[in-house]
Amino acid sequence: MIESKRRRRTVANIATYFVLAGLSMFCIGPMIWMLLTSLKYEADIVTQTMQYIPRRVTFDNYVAIWTQSGFPRLIGNSITVTFLTVTICVATGTLAAYAFSRFAFRGRTQLMLGYLVVRMFPAVMMIIPLYVVMRGVGLVDSRFGLALAYTSFLLPLFVWMLKGFFDSAPRELESAARIDGSTRLGAMVRIVMPLARNGLVASSVFIAIAAWNEFLFALMLTTGQGSRTWPVGLQLMVGEFQLPWGVLAAGGILSILPVVVLFAIVQRTMVQGLTAGAIKG
Amino acid sequence: MTADIEIRNVNKHFGAMSVLEDLSLSIKAREFIVFLGPSGCGKSTLLRMIAGLETVDSGEIAINRERIDHLPPGKRGIAMVFQSYALYPHMTVRDNMAFGLENIGMSREVIDARINEAARILEMPHLLERKPGQLSGGQRQRVAIGRAIVKEPKAFLFDEPLSNLDAALRTRTRLELAQLHQRLQSTMIFVTHDQVEAMTLADRIVVMNNRRIEQIGSPMEIYERPATKFVAGFVGAPAMNFIDATLDRSSGNATARFSDGISVRTAISSDLLADDKYSFGIRSEDVRIVPPGQGNADGVVDVLERLGERTLIYIRLGDGQQIVGSDVGNSRVAVGHKVGLAFDGQKSHLFSAAGRAWHAREA
Fold it and tell me: Which residues of B touch A280 (CB under 8 A)?
């Protein structure tokens, strides 16, 4: 009886791991393949029989994309746009999230919902009116304009996420800070923000990754080298008659490196429970 | 430093709901005042209005005859201790205590001197470099009080500061607060729903209920001469016994008659009483247990609560009403026994239908 129960549990465990491993392969597989491809010679990529593990390893693709294309420029633009987006979101979104979290004002719920509505429309639908507006104010093909466009759909997400973190910071702490002579803003900056620091970092990284990887808006709103970001640039490298697989793969790997690094940071910060001891624990 | 506090005709609404109605109160310098009442009676709101954490809809609050209800909390010269302690978790104990002083631009030497003095008073110099997360509940409470002391405020405000502590620690901290008040001679306002805290700490208790003040008085005044039926029922454990009574006002002092023919002669002058229907009130310690037939009424023991120094006895009368009486610690009475009840008419109270109270003339 016990024996059979144990066996059943083992079978269930094996099945679970099988599913998990399968899903992991599904997610990570393409990235590993891309990494392997980026390390191959062009001749080893397109072959009669599939070669998963490269027989000869080369870094030529990395050298090629970094020196023989506008890739560094693309990365530079992406960094600028991402930085601008995060800066705008943090500067305005933090205040907005705090207000939503702490104040009861007329139209609060409607405004919060309105923020979500923006995200319900497909980006494709927004892109044409947005393009017209951007052209009208002369922000097409500018990194700042692209950052503004990103802000329009990332800020609501940022505010919603951060509001949750602010909500969990005890209100009595702010009351105490105000009695200790802080203003509302002072209490927010010196007491609530340090407590919601992990949330702030997590939300910012989330925004940064979204801005970093964005393709559609970037495709429509940038026309020249001056403001084009890496996802568009990489896509444009796909020629009509030739496909430089190795170089593209190397570009892809280089582009996801910052994302991987950022995720590593978020993970560490999010685990720390900073609020421990704030109230009776 | 100490201060008197004057609250005049204060009103407060949250949306359409009224929380405080036309409330006025004078607090003398160096007084220990306790706001006592059930949850939702407005006592915490009143405290937060004095602190400046809630706005005043209409009316005035003055400290030392200076109007402060328009000032931000930090400019009122008060300190507050919260139920959750509200220590800044990312700062050390020292930084927690220094925070308010730094905000008013005090010099580092003075801050350090004050922190060391407060730490000495509260016997916690060894805790100064720790963070709140590394402290026990009692230690956090001390730090919260220390953070208030260093400000040398005009008044201390306590918002149910003991309710998160366990029973033993609560009793000890209560005693320490009383000693602290004697030592600092500051005005202190303490909010609680615990009548024992109120009775033991207060110079005067402000009993609040349903947006209003029911009674202001010394603990013994509140206990012995409650102004309303609410106060009589809220203060004292177990709660006062109430029995519906019809009055016989033919002699000088009124006699209360209960539905099953029991009667008790009170010490309350008939002249004062206009009506015939009253609620008769008597505390458990004024209901003695006697052999059956020798008291005002007989009943059957329902439940015994042995408290050590006395025994509370819940007795069911003939008409089904339950009365709490009191007997010696090692009472011989057992559940199911038939006993007699002797009501001490001198210490009985009468309450009108509107809740107003009448007591025996003061001796």
Answer: 84-85, 137, 140, 164
Residues 6+ apart with CB under 8 A from A123: A153, A216, A217
Are B99 and A175 an interchain contact pair (Cβ–Cβ within 8 Å)?
Answer: no
Reduced to 3 states, what is the DSSP secondary structure of residue B147? helix
Whether B104 and A274 lie within 8 Å, measured CB to CB:
no
A191 at B interface, C-beta within 8 A: yes
CATH architecture of B239-358: Beta Barrel (2.40)
- Which of B52, B84, B133 lies nearest to residue A172, judging by beta carbons? B84
Beta-sheet pairing, B5-14 with B58-63: antiparallel
This complex has an ipTM of 0.84
Is residue A203 situated within a structural domain?
Answer: yes
> Per the CB < 8 Å rule, is A179 touching B75?
no
Domain range holding A185? 62-271
H helical segments located in A180-223: 184-187, 193-195, 197-213, 216-221
- Read off the pLDDT of residues B145-199 as tens digits, 9 standing for 90 and up: 999 999 999 999 999 999 888 888 899 999 999 999 998 899 999 999 999 999 9
Q: Which residue of A has its CA nearest to B100?
A: A180
Three-state SS at B288: strand
Q: Is the separation of the CB atoms in B163 and B8 below 8 Å?
A: no
On chain A, the residues whose CB falls within 8 A of the CB of B103 are: 180-182, 186
Q: Tell how strand B338-343 and strand B297-306 pair up.
A: antiparallel
Q: How far is CA A89 from the centre of its chain?
A: 13
Residue A266 maps to a domain? yes
- CATH number of the domain at B5-233, out of 3.40.30.10, 3.90.79.10, 3.40.50.300, 3.90.1300.10? 3.40.50.300
* Whether residues A210 and A228 fall in one domain: yes
